[in-house]
Amino acid sequence: MSNHKLKILFVASEVESFAKTGGLADVAKALPLALKARGHDVRIMMPFYRTIAGGDQAEFICNQTLNTEQCGEVNYAIRKLHLEEVPVYGVDSMHYFDRAGLYGEGNHAYGDNGERFAFFSEAILHSCDALDFTPDIIHCNDWHTSLVPYLLKTRYQDHPRYRATKTILSCHNAAYQGIFNKSQLAITPELQHCNDSRMLENFSYVNYLKVGVLYADKVNAVSPNYATELLTPLGSHGMSHIFAERSADFEGIINGCDYNDWSPATDSYIPANYDANDLSGKDKCKAALQQEVGLDQNPDFPIFGMVCRLTEQKGFQILVPALEAFLVHQVQVIIVGTGDPIVTKQLQQLEQKFAGKFKFINAYSNSLSHLVEAGADFFLMPSLFEPCGLNQLYSLAYGTLPIVRGVGGLKDTVNDYDEDPQRANGFIFYEPEPTDLLNILRRVLLLYIEQPAEMQRIKQQAMACHFYWSDSVVDYERLYAKALQLYAL
Are residues 191 and 234 in the same domain? Predict the structure, then answer.
């Protein structure tokens, strides 16, 4: 590798260890750490939420005033935390971020999210002067920071600090595009008065993600297969023409897995550690999981686990009717998560109907998530779409075989047993139909009962699969080099 080290500003709406609602936070922690390990000067910027972990220990850096044409003076502070050796700068605005939630409360988004994250995008660029930091790359993530590339090429196009700065936009889930009425963009008048139809919805709404995709220097999706899907009308969430317009600057890079947090050999959340050479600890974790959630302590019942947000994306309209038929067998199913109240009620009804076989934990619990990964035999991911997915990577590490729908990053990381038994590390179905999921669940159950030695082999094979950030980070370096035209990197 070249000795050319970059100054990278990594901007995201959430970062694991500080604030998290989903997989974006995991990436926003792991990728900057991987970049730092490669010798780059990387810094993170995020909103300083009321609930940010360790916020009371943050170092005050300075007060800032953002002067706007229509909103007057907007005051905020910059506070500094640390992610190991990576500095994390929090944009602290009482008006925008001193709230109980990150994006909303009680399954309802805040009505001014468009204004909140337009401000955040502005504060990102405004703050670099106060920090005296001139980034080579600003790495943006999802719609929350998608206005940064636009601002760089409009308001800041002649700013001496940013003459050589390039932007990367990572699409973690293009189903969430950030569509807001122009009335929320008074703080960003350049965009409020924009009439570029490519970025608008019904004339009076701005699509933040479209803005970012059109203006970023390079765009990536979080898996190669998801990048391919985003170029098709069926898989693009209505944005295929926008991604196609940027196809020369668009690619997919698979997420890595943070094995410091997710390894059965060292996991402090589980009652017994184990590895591929000795799986006896997994049996102890299974018994502990059954006891923890209140299921019958039967070692012969296979456990099918699932940990996720309860959203349509995760395939519950496929899963619930499939489980109605599947739970008549000698199996146990555990689902942990919060979200859609309709899905919550459906799962609670299943629990009443199949007491002793099905358990729904309506909560988010990091410790229980680890125990499910370690104690279950299989992990369910019947997603309608899945840009990358992280739980299947965790499941592989724990020898908990993933049962997935062949979409997005799930297809990139899981090898189906029936398609290639020798390389298999899980099971794939394709059609988003309950019958297709039920068929593969029964296929897996039969294999579990009749061929325990083969199951053991597949588990060990799964545990030998690794998706290291140290590999993915090289692809990101290459993407940065393309943006900067530093081909010697």
Answer: yes
